[in-house]
Amino acid sequence: MGDHVGDLNANLPCHSTGDPQLDKAIYQWITWDKNPRTRAQVEALLRDGRLDELRRRLCSRMSFGTAGLRAAMGAGFALINDLTVIQSTQGMYKYLAKCFPDLESRGLVVGYDTRGQEASSCSSERLGKLTAAVMLCKDVLVYLFSSYVPTPFVPYAVKKLGAAAGVMITASHNPKEDNGYKVYWENGAQISSPHDKEILRCIEESTEPWAEAWNENLPDVSPLRRDPLEDICRGYMEDLKSVCFHRELNTKTPLKFVHSAFHGVGHEYVQRAFRVFGFPPPIPVPEQKDPDPEFSTVSCPNPEEGESVLELSLRLAEKEGARIVLATDPDADRLAVSEQCDNCEWRVFTGNELAALLGWWMLFNWRETHPDPADTQRVCMMATTVSSKILQAFAQVEGFQYEETLPGFKWTGNKIHELEKQGKVVLFAFEESIGFMCGSVVRDKDGVSAAVVVAEMAAYLHSKNLTLSRQLANIFEIYGTHISKTSYVVCRDPPTIKRIFTRLRNWEGEAAYPKSCRGYSISHIRDVTTGYDSSQPNQKCVLPVTKNSQMVTFSFQNGIVATLRTSGTEPKIKFYTEFCAPPGKRDISSMEEELCKVTEALVEEFLEPDKNNLTRRSV
User: Fold this and answer.
1) What residue stretches are annotated with the Alpha-D-phosphohexomutase alpha/beta/alpha domain (predicted)?
2) Burial code of 341-371, b = ≥16 C-beta within 10 A, e = fewer?
3) pLDDT digits (tens, 9 = 90+) for 202-249
4) Distance, first Cα to last Cα, the chain
5) Residue 331 in contact with residue 264, Cβ under 8 Å?
6) CA–CA dist 358, 451 (Å, integer)
7) Quick one: CA dihedral 153, 155, 161, 163, positive or negative?
8) Which pLDDT belongs to residue 63?
9) Does the active-site annotation cover 523?
10) What are the φ/ψ torsions at residue 485 (nearest 5 degrees)?
11) Which secondary structure element, helix H or strand E, spans residue 114, and what is its range?
């Protein structure tokens, strides 16, 4: 299209910007975009002379992070909109056609959540239909859900239907301005290298939209479109029974549960899952049970933020006499849990604490039906490397296999595929950001199954006069207390992030990492961005090197492990610290105090929030 840039004056409401790259990008956008609202956004920016904003939107392209493509909705090649979703799907088609000779008959699964932005005439449903239209116009079978679904339904459907791949239009728990494009491979796991890079290359080779790709009505009339909603929902609920161990007990429990869907997709599906397990349906938070793309009752749609965003759920639970609150995030792939303690205060469990409970529960029930110790050797549990090491402590005592991956379930899902081919049974996997996989129904985190599994565990413990909190204390007594802290600072300036991590790598001269942090000695450093690991004989990382994201882990002499990393989905630098005590150690308060001090030192010394204008977590 570059040959036509000289015609800019005839086609655009303004003269050339003087920047050939920007001129070309503007010309392409206004020539290709058939959405009048996003096209008008670019024209308005051009009229107003906002060239820096145009460069930000038009002169770069999204790349696949820990959860696929994710960005704000709006006009521009760097954002989520009709045109970039069409381009992404065209690239997907080109790559899938190379990988699968039978692509047309195997097909693609497409799901979507309930996000939307009126200003861009952009909704997840519309983007899902455009994704389907691109494939249908190339005679590819498309399984397009007729209504919004939880994200886990897409990888489940890919496996169940034998599809070549799947796409989920969602930005999960991100702010309301965002949306995303999550891709699953034939094995039901999110795509990782080399597929992500190859799809991006194919996208860049096929940027001009095909004329038929804009026909969002094509899914309504094409004989190649199937609606998998009823079959997949029925199959998923049937397969959930594989992680239901005490149905009769569930039918009799006096426990009540409150569920918040956080204005997303989870309400109907969690209700159905509870019925499958024999429970009465959980009490829904009325203000939050129906989809609302504005997320109007919460400051941010992320239940991980804790008590402040769970306010409506906790007050309803008090009114209804429910001791357990379950909150799924907007696309229902993650789960927050809170329990009312004896003093009537609420305890919001961290992702690491919930993982300790769920890991114990899954192993406990496996053992009930597999008493032979040899069976336990087939079992594997998994965690991401920034998550708690509690499952590792379980494995050392109980004799099963423990595996770690890089952050993000795309790594976990693909590792599960490898392990299952070796005959392993992956009972449980998690990431500390309240993402849990119970059993092997889905090779991804799943808030729907996690919600009902937590309910059954709570009902069983209640029958033994135990609470979740009491059982967590029992677990720590046996396997050692694991205390962790996880938080973040917000940084919207990529050069600042680069400067922070470059400083860490050249602390005491070139390529010399810090030996201490405010007096706390560091014994080992692992940097998966560069592939360095001082604890290995060859000083090379065992985990895959990820050059496009920042992640450095510090092992302190006092036993604390701390990691700094950039988020793959949001403009955040996250920090994780954990203190692992041996079984029987009871002086927990001194451990907590030491962990707080190291965490504060890490943030102030290595991130320098005030100097670098970083926004501290406010919720």
Assistant:
1) 62-208, 235-339, 351-476
2) eeeeebbbbbbbbbbbbbbbbbbebbeeeee
3) 999 989 999 999 999 999 999 999 999 999 999 999 999 999 999 999
4) 47
5) yes
6) 11
7) positive
8) 84
9) no
10) -130, 135
11) none
- Non-local CB neighbours of 403 within 8 Å, separated by 6+ positions: 380, 381, 382, 415, 419
Peptide bond into 301 cis (omega under 30): no
Stretch (H or E) spanning 165: strand 165-169
Distance of alpha carbon 397 from alpha carbon 563, whole angstroms: 26
CA distance readout (Å), 608 to 107, 427, 600, 611 = 50, 41, 11, 6
Model confidence at 493: pLDDT above 90: yes
H-helix or E-strand spanning residue 245: none
- Identify the CA nearest to 448 among candidates 296, 328, 594: 328
User: Is 587 a residue whose pLDDT tops 80?
Assistant: no
Q: Residue 183 forms beta bridges with which residues?
A: 167
In the chain, the amino acid numbered 138 is: K
CB of 145 within 8 A of CB of 61?
no
pLDDT at 6: 39
- pLDDT score of 14 more than 80: no
Q: Which of 597, 576, 594 has the alpha carbon at shortest distance from 585?
A: 594
- The CB density around residue 175, as the number of other CB atoms within 10 Å, is 13
At 1, the pLDDT band (50, 70, 90 cuts) reads very low
Lowest mean per-residue pLDDT among 5-14, 125-134, 146-155, 529-538: 5-14
**Which of 3, 191, 16, 174 minimizes the C-alpha distance to 95?**
191
The three-state secondary structure class of 283 is strand
3-state helix, strand, coil in the chain (%, to 5): 45, 20, 35
- Token pair 């795309």 in the structure block, residue: 410
The SS3 of residue 314 is helix
Q: Evaluate the CA torsion angle 8, 9, 11, 17 in order and state its sign.
A: positive
Please list the alpha-helical segments (H only) found in 59-138. Answer: 82-99, 103-106, 124-136
By the 8 A CB rule, do 598 and 559 touch?
Answer: no
Cβ neighbours for 435, distance < 8 A, ≥ 6 positions apart: 333, 334, 351, 409, 445
C-alpha 66/C-alpha 173 separation (Å) is 14
CA dihedral of 386, 387, 390, 394, whole degrees rounded to 10? -90
Kindly give, in sequence order, each residue whose CB lies less than 8 Å from that of residue 5, ignoring residues fewer than 6 positions away.
Answer: 20, 23, 24, 27
**Per-residue pLDDT at 548:** 86
Rounded average pLDDT over 526-549: 93
Structure confidence at residue 509 as a pLDDT band (50, 70, 90) = confident
For residues 66 and 53, the answer to whether their CB atoms sit within 8 Å is no
CA distances from 347 to 121, 294, 341, 343, 483 (A): 41, 28, 7, 11, 15
Strand partners, 616: 489
pTM for the full predicted model: 0.93
* pLDDT value at residue 343: 82
Residue tagged active-site, from 172, 433, 440, 567: 172
Q: Which residue has the tokens 């999110």?
A: 190
More confident residue, 487 or 13: 487
Laid out side by side, the sheet with 225-226 consists of 69-72, 178-185, 165-169, 108-112, 142-144, 225-226
Cβ 114 vs Cβ 197: under 8 Å: no
Strands (E), 236-334: 257-260, 283-284, 324-328
